[in-house]
Each structure stands twice: as structure tokens, then as C-alpha cells.
């Protein structure tokens, strides 16, 4: 028996949700990028110590949704509110608490969750203490009693958050028996995400929203590199050429970046082949989204 708790992480895009979870776990579980829609799936991260197991649910950033796919991402985030014991609402120190934040907070307050924390992220980017104090006051006015700060290279901030979350934990069987397990995603899913992360790294501003990655085959043989065959899907034929690049330069960069990332995280050699295909306007087609895992 341990004390256990399931904690949801929610907020607008690029407020630091995945960064927070990765830093608490000390593992690079969720990909991080300044591009919105970086997180597209609810990803579970697992914190273990001798007495506690806390499961974090990282969610897609809630944003204005016109396309069916974007609406699906928002619904994933809000569905999480029915599955957790506590909520972390994240909002960055260097931005005002605007309409997007208030919309999410209204959803949180209308749920049955009593255990909730507001986390002011990116406090390392703001030198003005008065500005941070004002941000905290705004959050108190919106219904948060407990407010914490978090920032890169400030490890104590993450320790403070985990210690407070332990006060919400209750006696129960661990959700995951393996204490070395830090996430619920497999190598296949991680390979898919590392390819998408590479695409976010190399592609222009708008195109990343139009891509989806599917692992076609993941072959593991003893004493041999992992053989990974993947396809990147785009919405239009014109995007295919951009993704491949002149002389296949773009797809080579994406392949090299993602392969090196896989080898680093997996601790294993990787042989990677990536193809590019068109799935016409897949973000608006229910059947195509299901095929691509959304």
C-alpha cells in the first residue's frame, strides 16, 4: 500500500505543462516545443517514492478550436477533469490572466474537483515581484487558495509542488506496480512523438499543425538496432514537397534529429525510415483522425 493521487495538468498552449511534468519526474516523457498543439494526447507520468505514487495527466493546451481536430484536443483536456483527484492549472508569469485562462478556470470550478492548485510558470522570466504578486492575487480572486511558482533552473519550485500534492494523496494500491516506470507510453508512441518533435523543430510556423505521424512498424530483434518505419501525413499535396525539401534535405534533417533523440532516450541503436504521404484534410475527417490515432 502507498498513498496515491491522480493529478491533471491543464492550461492554454505553451504555458509549460509538459515542462512541469518532465521536471517533476526528472525524465523527458512529453515533447516540448514553442509551437501550439505540441501535446496532442493525454500522457501519464508517474512519480514514485517510498510512500507515495502520484500520477500526472498532461493534456493538450486548450485553445480556440475551429477544425474538428482542434475541438477533439480540447475535449481530451476537459474529459480529464472527470478522471483525476486534483488539478494543476498553469498560467505563465509573463502573460496576463486573460479570457482563455478564465474560460478554463470556469470549467475547473464547475467540476467536482476540490483539490486544485494554480501554478504560475516561467517565473524565471519575470524580475518584477509586484507583477508576480498581482498575478497571484488575480488567481485568488478566481477561486484558487493555493498558488505556487515554477521556473527553469529552480528545482525547489518543483519540490514544493510535489510536497503539496502529497497532502491530497490517500491510502490505496499503486496504479502502477513497477516503481521504475515513469510513464504509461511505450517505445512506439515515443518514437512517433520524437519524429513529430523533430518536425516541429525544422518546419515553418504553420505546417506543423497539418502533420500527423504514424509508426507503421517497430521491429525489435536481439543484438540488433530497432528497425522503425514511420509515415508523416500532411493535409495537402503542396505540403508534401515542403516536408521532403529540396534534395530531400528537410526529411533528412527530421530523420536525423529524431533518430538521435530515440537513441539517446532508448539507450539503443535505431534504424529509421520515414515516408511522407497526403491524407487530404485529415483534421476535418473523423475516419482519418481515427486511423492516425486521434
From TrEMBL:
Region listing for G1, in residue ranges: 11-18
Residues covered by region (G5): 149-151
Subcellular location: Cytoplasm; Cell membrane
GO terms assigned for molecular function: GTP binding; GTPase activity; ribosomal small subunit binding; small ribosomal subunit rRNA binding
Sequence ranges assigned to domain KH type-2 in this UniProt record: 203-280
Domain of life: Bacteria
Keywords: Cell membrane, Cytoplasm, GTP-binding, Membrane, Nucleotide-binding, Ribosome biogenesis, RNA-binding, rRNA-binding
Membrane topology summary: Peripheral membrane protein
Renumbered residue ranges of the record's region G4: 121-124
Main location: cytoplasm
Annotated stretches, region: G3: 58-61
GO biological process assignments: ribosomal small subunit assembly
Residues engaged in binding GTP: 11-18, 58-62, 121-124
Keyword Cytoplasm appears in the UniProt entry: yes
Gene Ontology annotations for the cellular component aspect, listed alphabetically: cytosol; plasma membrane
Domain called Era-type G: residue spans: 3-171
Residue segments, region G2: 37-41
Family listed: Belongs to the TRAFAC class TrmE-Era-EngA-EngB-Septin-like GTPase superfamily. Era GTPase family.
PANTHER family the record matches: GTPASE ERA (PTHR42698), GTPASE ERA, MITOCHONDRIAL (PTHR42698:SF1)
Function, as annotated: An essential GTPase that binds both GDP and GTP, with rapid nucleotide exchange. Plays a role in 16S rRNA processing and 30S ribosomal subunit biogenesis and possibly also in cell cycle regulation and energy metabolism.
Protein name: GTPase Era
